[in-house]
Structure formats: structure tokens, C-alpha cells
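Dear colleague,

Thank you for sharing your sequence with our group. We've completed the structure prediction you requested, and as agreed, I am returning the results in plain text so they can be pasted directly into your records. Please verify that the sequence below matches your submission; if there's any discrepancy, let me know and we will rerun it promptly.
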Amino acid sequence: MITKKVVLIGDFATGKTSLIRRYVDNQFSDEYLTTIGVKISKKTLQISDEIELQLMVWDIEGHTDVKATNPAYVIGAHGVILVGDITREKSIENIPLHLELVKRLLKKVPIVIALNKSDLLPNEIEIEIEKKVLDLDASLPEVLKVFDTSAKSSKNVEAIFITLSQALLL
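Please find the predicted C-alpha cells below.
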């Protein structure tokens, strides 16, 4: 079995815990639970007959002040999911700051971005979301892919973890 550490980083209340709960347990709750410190979940994926991948998913408490993120939680990660709340512009603007922290603490790890809570926007804003995704994707070449996600509807939740998992096995 191959074990890899994956960390979710982003501002507070962006839905990091909800994304993990949806992916690991296929559950969702509208109740907001603040993560204090770090919570670790694990999920085992059967990649092939010979390969089993165990993801140790670290849910790191959110901070608007990136400097407040405890480096000890990030160090040793094999992959990173940066999370922003699509309904809160500031949390998206802070993604490059979180990315700088990751680049400072880790050497060349796969990174994906989840612009979460897309279910909270009306359908007519879908084009604007796609533009944000493309703009962020183009401006951050070190990022594998940017997804618009929803832990509530499960939109692209599996995709962010699969994309990252595939990169972890390269």
C-alpha cells in the first residue's frame, strides 16, 4: 500500500471540512464546524489489482492571515488542495498567498484548487464562475487544475481528489 499525505488549505469557512466529509464519508451537513488545529481522515483507493493508495487527508484550520497557518501541518505533504469560497471574493484573492506558503514549505508537489460552494450561486452566474476558474488556472502555472466544486451537491469533489491522486502516483 502506498500512503500519501494530502493537505487542504484555505481561509476559514471555505468548506474544507465539508469537501473532506463528502469525499471520505459521502456525507454533507449545512452545520458549520470550525476546525481547530488539524483533523486527519483517511481514504483508501484501489488503483489497480496491485496498487492501493491510502490518502491521509489533513483538514487544516483556516486562516485569512496565511502567516498564522502552522507550518508543521503542511510540511511532509505529498499533495495540496487549496480551497476558496466562490461566494467570498476575498477567500479567492487569498489563494495565491496560500500557494506561496505551500511553495515555501514544500518542494514541487501537485496542487489543485477547489473554488467551493458553487451550488450557492444562481445558474446565470455559471459563466462568471468558469471565467474565474480559467483566470486562476492561467495565472498559476504550478497548479494542476482549478475546479468549481460543491460539497453539498458533490460537484467535482471526486474529481479534485482523483486528479491529485493520479499526480501523486506519477
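Summary note from our side: Helices lie at 16-25, 71-74, 89-93, 95-105, 126-139, 157-168.

Kind regards,
the structure core
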